[in-house]
Amino acid sequence: MPQIDYYFSTLSPFTYLAGNRLEELAEKHGATIAYKPMDIIALFPRTGGTPPKDRHPSRMEYRMQELKRAAKKTGLPINFKPAHWPTNAAPSSYAIIAAQLSGGDVGPLVQGFLRACWAEEKDIATDEVVREVLGTAGFDPSLADSGLLTGAEIYAANLEEAVNRGVFGAPFYITDTDQRFWGHDRLDDLDAHLSGAL
Fold first, then answer.
1. Domain topology for 3-195
2. What are the angstrom distances between the C-alpha of 53 and each of 13, 94, 114?
3. Which residues contact 9 (CB under 8 A, 6 or more apart)?
4. What would the pLDDT profile of 72-130 be if each residue is shown by its tens digit?
5. Could you report the per-residue pLDDT of 137-183, keeping only the tens digit for each?
6. How far apart are CA 86 and CA 194, in angstroms?
7. Half-sphere exposure (CA, 13 Å, Cβ side) for 35?
8. How do the domains of the chain map onto residue ranges?
């Protein structure tokens, strides 16, 4: 059974615009997904990147054009300048880690946090929003209070692992054969790879 290590940030608009396509591909190919939320702001300087706010204007303009095109293609609602972005991604990431350790279906939870940030104008750093998203995705809202130390440790470990495995942005997918795919627009390539065509 193939495994996909999924490195992402709950602050990433391109991760949001991937929707549930990764989960659909995993089901199609009988693959498992290891969800690995990471601190993307800390990742950028360690892998030659620059946080969005510090990029050259031409890169900022291109990023916005890409976001608008991607939103049209996916049909997902998005606020290109959300009220609560950037925010602290740690609370939502810890909740995802706790949920994954509890054995539930984490895909809808990840998408719930991304949607809250990019379409619903909610601050995913607040306890109220974290609990709400957990509950909506079918998890016990009290997971927001449990395993915070473990969540912090795994969140930090995910960043180190990402750096060591060649991750430099989000979303980033790595197969168990070390094939790497960066960006929501590489999911077709991941599909072809899992099919044996690429």
1. Glutaredoxin (3.40.30)
2. 14, 25, 19
3. 15, 37, 38, 39, 40, 89, 93, 170
4. 999 999 999 999 999 999 999 999 999 999 998 999 999 999 999 999 999 999 999 99
5. 999 999 998 878 899 999 999 999 999 999 999 999 999 999 999 99
6. 34
7. 27
8. 3-195
